[in-house]
Amino acid sequence: MRILNIMSGGKAGGAETFFVSLVLALKSAGHESRAVIRSHPERAALIRAGGVEPLELPFRKWLDFTTKAALEREIAAFKPDVVMTWMSRASAICPTGDFLRLARLGGYYPIKNFQNCEHLICNTTELVDHVVKSGWPRARASYLPNFARIETAPTMARATFDTPDDAPLLLALGRLHPAKALDVLIRALAIETRPYLWIGGEGVLKTELEGLARELGVADRVRFLGWRNDKAALFGAADICAFPSRVEPFGNVVLDAWGYGKPLVAAASTGPADLVRDNEDGLLVPIDDAPALAAGIGRVIDEEGLADRLVAAGRKRFDADFTEQACVQRYVALFEELLRERQAGHRRAG
């Protein structure tokens, strides 16, 4: 199968990370996989390292006279069976043609941007309900969850970030953005005073979050690591994965915690609440509740056997439903089903 994925996102984030993972996973599964992205040297390098040569285009909002024409040329040259667009702009400007035209949604985008698509793939059941309530036909929307790529790497030495070996270590990954509620996690650190915290991510709130840590007297236990591509090394060093998002449609970090074998404490935003079985494979706490988050972290530190129990159940969930192989099989099976329906429709029309 010849599959072209088109991503107009520019900044680092969960959707962009999963885009790279899926493009490379489809190639690894034996399909001819190509990628078109908004110009982004780091993302292009990751895709290239996986054996796929990306096409980088501007995807500007205004006065962009090159992107759509370049997409048309790429599609004409590649002759894909499937074109899957990510983000609103890529979906709105992608041409139609003799191929299956899909869009993958990981957020609450306006449905008007996807009118040229034959089918929508949503990474949560709640997103399927959202697009249907917005007027999209239910028969043309499918739920396919993300997967997480679990890699091996030497454990990051805690001394790298001036962290004691004997202190409980929390790891939080995500954009420094209001939706990620890292302010709540920093406030929790002022209540539960034993852990150190590594935050992997970049974003508009960095200065504000650094100031909050100083204001609360916890700056000596918080490390801002910047955007990271070495999750395996970071998870190896951590004791607990903290995921405090107040808005989170899916939550790849949940899968990372399960796959890397770390107990998870997460706020009950949409994605984590849908994925996590509370007190079985993770602990869920109310959104925007620093005392509850601190209490959950304290339980994992103090309650005998809890961390091991959460890790074992999380790994079982991961192996059953969220491996690369399982998720790619679901994607390919959907592509094949929709291509058969498309061909049958053409025969009836003919």
From TrEMBL:
Q: List the molecular function annotations (GO) for this entry.
A: glycosyltransferase activity
Instruction: Answer yes or no on keyword Transferase.
Output: yes
The reply on keyword Transferase is yes
* InterPro entries associated with the record: Glyco_trans_1 (IPR001296), Glyco_trans_4-like_N (IPR028098)
Q: Where is the Glycosyl transferase family domain?
A: 162-317
Residue intervals of the Glycosyltransferase subfamily 4-like N-terminal domain: 13-147
Source domain of life is: Bacteria
SUPFAM superfamilies linked to this entry: UDP-Glycosyltransferase/glycogen phosphorylase
Q: Which UniProt keywords apply?
A: Transferase
User: What is the name of the protein in this document?
Assistant: Glycosyltransferase
